[in-house]
Amino acid sequence: MKVRVLIRLKPGILDVQGAAVLRALAGLGFADARELRVGKLIDIEVDAATPAAAQQRVDEMCRKLLANTILEDYTIEAVEAGRLAPRQAVR
Amino acid sequence: MKVRVLIRLKPGILDVQGAAVLRALAGLGFADARELRVGKLIDIEVDAATPAAAQQRVDEMCRKLLANTILEDYTIEAVEAGRLAPRQAVR
What we know:
Chain A is an alpha+beta fold. Chain A contains 2 helices and 3 strands; from the N terminus they run E-H-E-H-E.
């Protein structure tokens, strides 16, 4: 079962990396980028009987290791077969 | 216009961080995690008239700054209003 975890800093937390990237974009002429935040993406393949079981297991992994729940929020998304490395990705 | 960029190492590239996380998970008893890769998530708000224009602009940003296209693939996803920081996120 393929699962995708998106980990982001909580809204109140200053995203220094995102601010730096935004400034760099402005320097390159991308003044139309108004807001930018950098987070982590984790693609996991879990042995589980059902998507719900997989999500529950990954939720446990997030709380115990993957996310720092004091500073970060996480979202778990099920991924349809074959979409973990999407075909529409730019190579 | 809100856009989400997912940046992943290309399939052939060794993901050292992912391998380390997978070992740490196994050490915590999560032997059911079979494969794991770590990537980057960038949430961007762009000034653009249409979703297509926003995506095209972000594609340019990816090629010029956000992604290292030698090592990484990127995927650009449109985000419905309000879903940049999803409500179903765990706080």
